[in-house]
Specification:
Layout (H helix, E strand, L loop, with lengths): L1 E4 H6 L1 H9 L4 E5 L2 E6 L13 H8 L25 H11 L5
Parallel strand pairs: 1-2
Antiparallel strand pairs: 2-3
Amino acid sequence: MKVVGIKELKNKLSEYVKLAKAGEVVLVTDRGDVVAELRAPTPWKDPMMENPRFAEAVRQGLITPRKIPPGTELNLEHDGPRIPFEQLMRELDESREDRF
């Protein structure tokens, strides 16, 4: 594990990226405090990509694979619509008046 200050990292970025690519973890410090880690990405293989039809659809650009690993809990709570549906439709109609 290497430790490097921000200034040195900026000046020798390519060198530290090569270290990270080789598997080394580089801790980035700012005034002695660790503020970031530079490391090679962890491989994540989507099991859906093993399905040839799915993989072909992704290759063709017909669908986009998910960006988060399977099993990640999602918080999809929302507090409802910001404006009533009727108001939204009225404003939409008003904005389209010049098109008729």
